[in-house]
Amino acid sequence: MIRIRALVAVAAVAVVAGCGYSATPVPQAVTPEPAAPATTAPCTDTGNPTRSYAPAAGGLPSPGNLPSGSTMAAIRDRGHLIAGVSGDSYLLASRNPFSGVVEGFDIDMVNQVAAAIFGTAKGHVQLRVISAADRIPLLQSGDVDIVARNMTINCARWDQIAFSAEYFHSGQKILVQKGSGITQVAGLSGKRACAPAGTTSLDQIQELAPDAIPVTATNHTGCLLKFQNGETDAITGDDTVLAGLAAQDPYAEVVTGEALTDEPYGIGVNRDQVDLVRFINGVLERMRADGSWQASYARWFKPSLKVDATQPTPVYGR
């Protein structure tokens, strides 16, 4: 019998006015998450794409002492930080149906940056809900100051934009029904596994479980509907995305263990605004020191992923 379970609807929506946020338009259509651009040439120097710019000497400046002429001072003078985010990635960035506020781990990152510029994030953040395909173009055009949208750092993207140090280390995993007996990817042999069409996630699965049966949907929410309708036995994707799906379905769980891929998330910035990158890296260092990163992880991800995590160690030297 097909068991249909309730799904907490999380739609891509505008950030509502109030609660310290400015209303922003929402794309009418959500573009499916594309695969990360292929790297056609090796990284320079250390070969580590997560390598970013070191925080400025002297530590993180106070809002009243931002360097004159800096990107941060210009944002402060404007009155708000404009951040490109997801609106339908539960636990990362999605609208709380009760408060009307877009919240999640990525939003915590945005708020920390805004608070470092203004002294408080309240009233100084404009969240712009964007598609995955819009992330780089909007940074290049200057329509957003930063992008915090589960964006994987890689060499190809460094040719187009700049990144903060890695703020979260994600990786591809699988989500299955509790009690399924599937404890590793090899257990998907003969089973159906779903991933959004156009991604490379199923390729990774079939390398390790050649007899797995691929199932596709428009996005991960579509995969969850298939999962709940008995049309697939598993869903695969970044563990952050799967954690959001598991939090919406009490019969689902993310298989623990080593991830199939490495997906280092970074905050995207216009490549010419190195001062803002250094500033954000200073914010991330402060989050490590005061425990706010750990608190954010414990709130959003640990209940579903069921594993401890620590903030990634930054790599500098650009």
TrEMBL record:
InterPro entries: Bact_solute-bind_prot3, SBP_3_CS, Solute-binding_3/MltF_N. Residues 80-304 form the Solute-binding protein family 3/N-terminal domain. SUPFAM superfamilies: Periplasmic binding protein-like II (SSF53850). CDD domains: PBP2_GluB. SMART domains: PBPb (SM00062). Residues 30-61 are annotated as: Disordered. Keywords: Signal, Transport. Residues 1-22 form the signal peptide. The keyword Oxidoreductase does not apply. Belongs to the bacterial solute-binding protein 3 family. This is Glutamate ABC transporter substrate-binding protein. The lineage of its organism: Bacteria, Bacillati, Actinomycetota, Actinomycetes, Propionibacteriales.
